[in-house]
Design brief:
Layout: H1 3-20, H2 24-44, H3 53-66, H4 73-80, H5 86-100, H6 117-130, H7 134-143, H8 150-159, H9 165-171, H10 175-181, E1 186-195, E2 201-209, E3 214-221, H11 226-240, E4 249-252, H12 260-267, E5 272-275, H13 285-297, H14 307-323, E6 347-352, E7 357-362
Helix pairs in contact: 3-5, 11-12
Length: 364
Protein backbone atom coordinates (compact mmCIF):
# COMPACT_ATOMS: atom_id res chain seq x y z
CA UNK A 1 0.00 0.00 0.00
CA UNK A 2 2.88 2.43 0.77
CA UNK A 3 5.10 1.63 -2.24
CA UNK A 4 2.32 2.05 -4.83
CA UNK A 5 1.93 5.89 -4.58
CA UNK A 6 5.71 6.26 -4.10
CA UNK A 7 6.27 4.39 -7.35
CA UNK A 8 3.78 6.61 -9.17
CA UNK A 9 5.49 9.74 -7.83
CA UNK A 10 8.88 8.49 -8.99
CA UNK A 11 7.58 7.72 -12.48
CA UNK A 12 5.98 11.17 -12.64
CA UNK A 13 9.23 12.94 -11.71
CA UNK A 14 11.20 10.96 -14.29
CA UNK A 15 8.66 11.93 -16.95
CA UNK A 16 9.14 15.61 -16.05
CA UNK A 17 12.93 15.35 -16.41
CA UNK A 18 12.56 13.56 -19.74
CA UNK A 19 10.06 16.09 -21.12
CA UNK A 20 12.14 19.11 -20.08
CA UNK A 21 15.10 17.87 -22.12
CA UNK A 22 13.02 17.23 -25.26
CA UNK A 23 12.87 19.80 -28.13
CA UNK A 24 9.61 21.67 -28.66
CA UNK A 25 8.80 19.91 -31.94
CA UNK A 26 9.22 16.48 -30.38
CA UNK A 27 7.00 17.52 -27.44
CA UNK A 28 4.24 18.63 -29.81
CA UNK A 29 4.37 15.33 -31.70
CA UNK A 30 4.30 13.34 -28.45
CA UNK A 31 1.36 15.38 -27.14
CA UNK A 32 -0.55 14.84 -30.39
CA UNK A 33 0.20 11.11 -30.30
CA UNK A 34 -0.93 10.81 -26.65
CA UNK A 35 -4.12 12.75 -27.36
CA UNK A 36 -5.01 10.33 -30.15
CA UNK A 37 -4.38 7.35 -27.85
CA UNK A 38 -6.59 8.83 -25.16
CA UNK A 39 -9.33 9.44 -27.71
CA UNK A 40 -9.20 5.77 -28.73
CA UNK A 41 -9.19 4.68 -25.08
CA UNK A 42 -12.26 6.81 -24.41
CA UNK A 43 -14.13 5.22 -27.31
CA UNK A 44 -13.26 1.64 -26.22
CA UNK A 45 -14.15 1.98 -22.52
CA UNK A 46 -17.72 2.33 -21.32
CA UNK A 47 -16.64 3.51 -17.88
CA UNK A 48 -13.82 5.76 -16.76
CA UNK A 49 -10.79 3.90 -15.38
CA UNK A 50 -10.32 3.69 -11.63
CA UNK A 51 -7.71 6.09 -10.29
CA UNK A 52 -5.66 5.93 -7.12
CA UNK A 53 -5.71 8.69 -4.55
CA UNK A 54 -2.32 9.94 -5.78
CA UNK A 55 -3.55 10.20 -9.36
CA UNK A 56 -6.60 12.16 -8.24
CA UNK A 57 -4.31 14.47 -6.30
CA UNK A 58 -2.14 14.98 -9.36
CA UNK A 59 -5.05 15.86 -11.65
CA UNK A 60 -6.52 18.18 -9.03
CA UNK A 61 -3.18 19.97 -8.60
CA UNK A 62 -2.86 20.53 -12.36
CA UNK A 63 -6.37 21.93 -12.51
CA UNK A 64 -5.59 24.28 -9.62
CA UNK A 65 -2.68 25.70 -11.64
CA UNK A 66 -4.90 26.24 -14.66
CA UNK A 67 -7.25 28.47 -12.65
CA UNK A 68 -4.69 31.29 -12.94
CA UNK A 69 -5.09 31.49 -16.73
CA UNK A 70 -7.26 34.05 -18.51
CA UNK A 71 -9.69 31.63 -20.14
CA UNK A 72 -12.43 29.97 -18.11
CA UNK A 73 -11.30 26.84 -16.37
CA UNK A 74 -14.07 24.67 -17.86
CA UNK A 75 -13.01 25.59 -21.39
CA UNK A 76 -9.35 24.78 -20.72
CA UNK A 77 -10.22 21.47 -19.13
CA UNK A 78 -12.33 20.45 -22.08
CA UNK A 79 -9.31 20.96 -24.33
CA UNK A 80 -7.08 18.33 -22.73
CA UNK A 81 -9.20 16.11 -20.45
CA UNK A 82 -10.39 13.15 -22.50
CA UNK A 83 -10.90 10.37 -19.95
CA UNK A 84 -12.74 12.42 -17.34
CA UNK A 85 -15.34 15.12 -17.25
CA UNK A 86 -14.14 18.53 -16.03
CA UNK A 87 -16.67 18.48 -13.21
CA UNK A 88 -15.15 15.23 -11.97
CA UNK A 89 -11.67 16.73 -11.58
CA UNK A 90 -13.08 19.85 -9.96
CA UNK A 91 -14.96 17.66 -7.49
CA UNK A 92 -11.71 15.87 -6.65
CA UNK A 93 -10.17 19.24 -5.82
CA UNK A 94 -13.11 20.23 -3.62
CA UNK A 95 -12.79 16.92 -1.75
CA UNK A 96 -9.11 17.58 -1.11
CA UNK A 97 -9.92 21.04 0.26
CA UNK A 98 -12.67 19.61 2.45
CA UNK A 99 -10.37 16.95 3.89
CA UNK A 100 -7.76 19.60 4.62
CA UNK A 101 -10.13 21.46 6.93
CA UNK A 102 -11.78 18.41 8.44
CA UNK A 103 -10.15 17.09 11.59
CA UNK A 104 -11.21 15.64 14.89
CA UNK A 105 -11.05 17.92 17.88
CA UNK A 106 -8.88 16.62 20.74
CA UNK A 107 -11.00 18.45 23.27
CA UNK A 108 -13.57 16.67 25.39
CA UNK A 109 -16.93 16.72 23.67
CA UNK A 110 -18.80 16.55 26.94
CA UNK A 111 -21.64 14.25 27.93
CA UNK A 112 -21.78 11.40 30.41
CA UNK A 113 -19.01 8.79 30.34
CA UNK A 114 -19.92 5.40 28.93
CA UNK A 115 -21.00 2.77 31.44
CA UNK A 116 -18.33 0.22 32.29
CA UNK A 117 -18.56 -3.02 30.28
CA UNK A 118 -18.65 -5.15 33.44
CA UNK A 119 -21.62 -3.17 34.76
CA UNK A 120 -23.48 -3.64 31.46
CA UNK A 121 -22.78 -7.37 31.55
CA UNK A 122 -24.12 -7.53 35.12
CA UNK A 123 -27.29 -5.68 34.12
CA UNK A 124 -27.94 -8.02 31.20
CA UNK A 125 -27.28 -11.05 33.40
CA UNK A 126 -29.82 -9.92 36.02
CA UNK A 127 -32.42 -9.25 33.32
CA UNK A 128 -31.80 -12.58 31.62
CA UNK A 129 -31.95 -14.62 34.82
CA UNK A 130 -34.89 -12.85 36.50
CA UNK A 131 -36.80 -10.75 33.96
CA UNK A 132 -36.96 -7.78 36.35
CA UNK A 133 -38.24 -4.36 35.39
CA UNK A 134 -36.35 -1.09 35.68
CA UNK A 135 -37.31 -0.30 39.29
CA UNK A 136 -36.51 -3.75 40.66
CA UNK A 137 -33.30 -3.89 38.65
CA UNK A 138 -32.20 -0.44 39.87
CA UNK A 139 -32.75 -1.46 43.48
CA UNK A 140 -30.85 -4.73 43.09
CA UNK A 141 -27.89 -2.90 41.56
CA UNK A 142 -27.90 -0.39 44.39
CA UNK A 143 -27.82 -3.26 46.88
CA UNK A 144 -24.76 -4.62 45.08
CA UNK A 145 -23.01 -1.25 45.29
CA UNK A 146 -23.44 -0.35 41.60
CA UNK A 147 -24.64 3.20 40.98
CA UNK A 148 -26.49 3.51 37.68
CA UNK A 149 -29.17 6.05 36.88
CA UNK A 150 -32.59 4.87 35.75
CA UNK A 151 -32.20 6.70 32.43
CA UNK A 152 -28.82 5.08 31.83
CA UNK A 153 -30.31 1.72 32.76
CA UNK A 154 -33.12 2.18 30.26
CA UNK A 155 -30.65 3.22 27.54
CA UNK A 156 -28.54 0.11 28.14
CA UNK A 157 -31.56 -2.16 27.81
CA UNK A 158 -32.66 -0.40 24.62
CA UNK A 159 -29.16 -0.63 23.14
CA UNK A 160 -29.16 -4.40 23.66
CA UNK A 161 -32.72 -4.78 22.28
CA UNK A 162 -34.18 -5.85 25.63
CA UNK A 163 -37.94 -5.11 25.63
CA UNK A 164 -39.76 -3.63 28.66
CA UNK A 165 -40.69 -5.92 31.52
CA UNK A 166 -44.39 -6.39 30.54
CA UNK A 167 -43.40 -7.62 27.08
CA UNK A 168 -40.78 -9.93 28.56
CA UNK A 169 -43.37 -11.39 30.92
CA UNK A 170 -45.71 -12.07 28.01
CA UNK A 171 -42.87 -13.81 26.20
CA UNK A 172 -42.26 -16.03 29.25
CA UNK A 173 -45.01 -18.37 28.03
CA UNK A 174 -43.24 -19.03 24.72
CA UNK A 175 -42.74 -22.53 23.38
CA UNK A 176 -39.10 -22.53 24.42
CA UNK A 177 -39.97 -21.64 28.01
CA UNK A 178 -42.79 -24.17 28.05
CA UNK A 179 -40.51 -26.98 26.85
CA UNK A 180 -37.81 -26.10 29.37
CA UNK A 181 -40.08 -25.79 32.40
CA UNK A 182 -42.28 -28.83 31.73
CA UNK A 183 -39.98 -31.19 29.84
CA UNK A 184 -40.20 -33.79 32.65
CA UNK A 185 -43.98 -33.96 32.15
CA UNK A 186 -44.09 -33.89 28.37
CA UNK A 187 -44.89 -36.55 25.82
CA UNK A 188 -44.34 -35.96 22.12
CA UNK A 189 -45.58 -37.88 19.09
CA UNK A 190 -44.93 -37.62 15.39
CA UNK A 191 -44.70 -39.45 12.06
CA UNK A 192 -41.85 -39.92 9.64
CA UNK A 193 -41.66 -41.82 6.35
CA UNK A 194 -39.32 -44.51 5.05
CA UNK A 195 -38.98 -45.62 1.42
CA UNK A 196 -38.50 -49.36 0.88
CA UNK A 197 -36.53 -51.16 -1.82
CA UNK A 198 -39.65 -51.22 -4.04
CA UNK A 199 -40.29 -47.52 -3.36
CA UNK A 200 -43.21 -48.21 -1.04
CA UNK A 201 -43.77 -45.42 1.47
CA UNK A 202 -44.09 -46.61 5.07
CA UNK A 203 -45.24 -44.35 7.90
CA UNK A 204 -43.63 -44.74 11.33
CA UNK A 205 -45.64 -43.53 14.33
CA UNK A 206 -43.78 -43.03 17.62
CA UNK A 207 -44.03 -41.43 21.05
CA UNK A 208 -41.23 -39.90 23.11
CA UNK A 209 -40.86 -39.17 26.82
CA UNK A 210 -39.24 -35.75 26.59
CA UNK A 211 -37.85 -35.79 30.11
CA UNK A 212 -36.01 -39.11 29.74
CA UNK A 213 -35.68 -39.12 25.89
CA UNK A 214 -37.11 -42.65 25.83
CA UNK A 215 -38.79 -43.47 22.50
CA UNK A 216 -41.72 -45.88 22.04
CA UNK A 217 -42.50 -47.35 18.63
CA UNK A 218 -46.28 -47.12 18.23
CA UNK A 219 -46.69 -48.70 14.81
CA UNK A 220 -45.73 -48.90 11.15
CA UNK A 221 -48.19 -48.84 8.27
CA UNK A 222 -48.46 -47.95 4.61
CA UNK A 223 -51.94 -46.44 5.07
CA UNK A 224 -52.15 -44.26 8.21
CA UNK A 225 -55.85 -43.59 8.81
CA UNK A 226 -57.40 -41.85 11.78
CA UNK A 227 -58.82 -45.13 13.11
CA UNK A 228 -55.38 -46.74 12.93
CA UNK A 229 -53.78 -43.80 14.76
CA UNK A 230 -56.41 -43.93 17.50
CA UNK A 231 -55.84 -47.65 18.04
CA UNK A 232 -52.07 -47.18 18.26
CA UNK A 233 -52.64 -44.46 20.85
CA UNK A 234 -54.72 -46.85 22.99
CA UNK A 235 -52.08 -49.56 22.72
CA UNK A 236 -49.39 -47.10 23.73
CA UNK A 237 -51.27 -45.95 26.83
CA UNK A 238 -51.79 -49.53 28.00
CA UNK A 239 -48.04 -50.11 27.89
CA UNK A 240 -47.11 -46.62 29.05
CA UNK A 241 -48.82 -47.00 32.44
CA UNK A 242 -46.06 -49.41 33.48
CA UNK A 243 -43.25 -46.90 32.88
CA UNK A 244 -44.30 -44.57 35.71
CA UNK A 245 -43.50 -41.43 33.68
CA UNK A 246 -45.52 -38.48 35.09
CA UNK A 247 -46.94 -37.23 31.78
CA UNK A 248 -49.31 -34.26 31.85
CA UNK A 249 -49.01 -32.88 28.33
CA UNK A 250 -48.80 -34.38 24.84
CA UNK A 251 -47.31 -32.30 22.02
CA UNK A 252 -48.51 -33.07 18.51
CA UNK A 253 -48.71 -31.23 15.21
CA UNK A 254 -51.87 -30.33 13.27
CA UNK A 255 -51.96 -33.40 11.04
CA UNK A 256 -55.49 -34.34 9.99
CA UNK A 257 -54.89 -37.91 11.22
CA UNK A 258 -55.17 -36.60 14.78
CA UNK A 259 -58.89 -36.22 15.44
CA UNK A 260 -60.94 -35.28 18.49
CA UNK A 261 -61.12 -38.99 19.33
CA UNK A 262 -57.34 -39.09 19.54
CA UNK A 263 -57.41 -36.13 21.95
CA UNK A 264 -60.13 -37.72 24.06
CA UNK A 265 -58.09 -40.92 24.50
CA UNK A 266 -55.33 -38.97 26.28
CA UNK A 267 -57.61 -36.54 28.09
CA UNK A 268 -59.35 -39.45 29.82
CA UNK A 269 -55.93 -40.33 31.28
CA UNK A 270 -55.40 -36.78 32.54
CA UNK A 271 -53.01 -35.82 29.71
CA UNK A 272 -53.67 -32.49 28.00
CA UNK A 273 -53.10 -32.42 24.24
CA UNK A 274 -51.23 -29.33 22.98
CA UNK A 275 -51.08 -28.58 19.27
CA UNK A 276 -48.00 -26.93 17.85
CA UNK A 277 -48.28 -23.71 15.80
CA UNK A 278 -48.82 -23.97 12.07
CA UNK A 279 -45.67 -24.96 10.15
CA UNK A 280 -43.49 -24.81 13.26
CA UNK A 281 -41.53 -28.07 13.51
CA UNK A 282 -39.21 -26.53 16.11
CA UNK A 283 -42.13 -26.53 18.55
CA UNK A 284 -41.80 -30.33 18.54
CA UNK A 285 -38.01 -30.16 18.52
CA UNK A 286 -37.29 -33.28 20.61
CA UNK A 287 -39.27 -35.55 18.30
CA UNK A 288 -37.72 -33.94 15.23
CA UNK A 289 -34.25 -34.45 16.69
CA UNK A 290 -34.91 -38.16 17.23
CA UNK A 291 -36.01 -38.51 13.60
CA UNK A 292 -32.69 -37.03 12.55
CA UNK A 293 -30.80 -39.45 14.82
CA UNK A 294 -32.56 -42.57 13.58
CA UNK A 295 -31.99 -41.54 9.96
CA UNK A 296 -28.32 -40.61 10.28
CA UNK A 297 -27.31 -43.50 12.55
CA UNK A 298 -29.46 -46.26 11.10
CA UNK A 299 -31.90 -45.84 8.20
CA UNK A 300 -29.58 -43.89 5.88
CA UNK A 301 -26.98 -46.66 6.18
CA UNK A 302 -29.12 -49.54 4.91
CA UNK A 303 -31.94 -50.34 2.48
CA UNK A 304 -35.29 -51.28 3.99
CA UNK A 305 -36.83 -54.29 2.23
CA UNK A 306 -40.41 -54.20 3.50
CA UNK A 307 -42.57 -53.39 6.52
CA UNK A 308 -41.45 -56.47 8.46
CA UNK A 309 -37.79 -55.60 7.90
CA UNK A 310 -38.36 -51.98 9.01
CA UNK A 311 -40.04 -53.18 12.21
CA UNK A 312 -37.04 -55.38 13.00
CA UNK A 313 -34.56 -52.57 12.28
CA UNK A 314 -36.38 -50.00 14.43
CA UNK A 315 -36.87 -52.46 17.30
CA UNK A 316 -33.15 -53.22 17.39
CA UNK A 317 -32.22 -49.56 17.12
CA UNK A 318 -34.63 -48.51 19.86
CA UNK A 319 -33.19 -51.12 22.20
CA UNK A 320 -29.78 -49.51 21.67
CA UNK A 321 -31.15 -45.95 21.74
CA UNK A 322 -33.03 -46.38 25.02
CA UNK A 323 -30.54 -48.58 26.86
CA UNK A 324 -27.09 -47.96 25.41
CA UNK A 325 -26.83 -44.55 23.76
CA UNK A 326 -25.79 -41.60 25.99
CA UNK A 327 -27.63 -38.31 25.41
CA UNK A 328 -26.15 -34.86 25.82
CA UNK A 329 -29.53 -33.40 26.78
CA UNK A 330 -29.72 -35.57 29.93
CA UNK A 331 -26.08 -35.22 30.99
CA UNK A 332 -24.76 -38.16 28.95
CA UNK A 333 -27.12 -40.66 30.57
CA UNK A 334 -29.21 -43.28 28.79
CA UNK A 335 -33.02 -43.02 28.76
CA UNK A 336 -33.24 -46.32 30.66
CA UNK A 337 -30.36 -46.26 33.18
CA UNK A 338 -28.27 -49.44 33.32
CA UNK A 339 -26.25 -49.86 36.53
CA UNK A 340 -22.59 -50.85 36.19
CA UNK A 341 -22.21 -54.06 38.20
CA UNK A 342 -18.42 -54.22 37.94
CA UNK A 343 -16.64 -50.89 37.19
CA UNK A 344 -13.37 -52.78 36.74
CA UNK A 345 -14.80 -55.48 34.46
CA UNK A 346 -13.61 -56.14 30.98
CA UNK A 347 -15.15 -54.02 28.20
CA UNK A 348 -16.95 -55.96 25.50
CA UNK A 349 -18.48 -54.80 22.24
CA UNK A 350 -22.06 -55.58 21.29
CA UNK A 351 -22.94 -55.39 17.59
CA UNK A 352 -26.28 -53.79 16.75
CA UNK A 353 -27.92 -54.65 13.41
CA UNK A 354 -25.06 -56.99 12.42
CA UNK A 355 -22.35 -54.47 13.18
CA UNK A 356 -24.02 -51.33 11.80
CA UNK A 357 -23.78 -49.82 15.31
CA UNK A 358 -21.41 -50.80 18.12
CA UNK A 359 -22.36 -50.68 21.80
CA UNK A 360 -19.76 -51.05 24.57
CA UNK A 361 -20.42 -52.38 28.06
CA UNK A 362 -18.46 -53.84 30.95
CA UNK A 363 -18.80 -57.55 31.65
CA UNK A 364 -20.22 -58.32 35.10
Amino acid sequence: MFWHPLHQLLVFLLDIVRIVRQPLDQKDLEILFLRQQLAVARRRQKRAPTLSRFEKLLFAALVAQLKQAAKPVREQLSNFLLLFQPDTVLRWHRDLVRKKWTYSSPRNRGGRPRTDAEVEALILRLVRENGWGGGKLHGELKKLGVTVGETTLRDILCRHNVPPAPERQRRATSWRTFLIHYHCQLLACDFFTVETLRLQTLYVFFFMEVGTRRVHLAGITAHPTSAWVNQQARNFLWQFEESGYPARYLIRDRDSKYTHVFNAIFETEGIEVIKTPVRAPKANAFAERWIRSVREECLDRLIVLDQRHLHYVLTEYLDYYNCGRPHQGIEQRTPIPLPISNPQGQIERRDILHGLIHDYRRVA
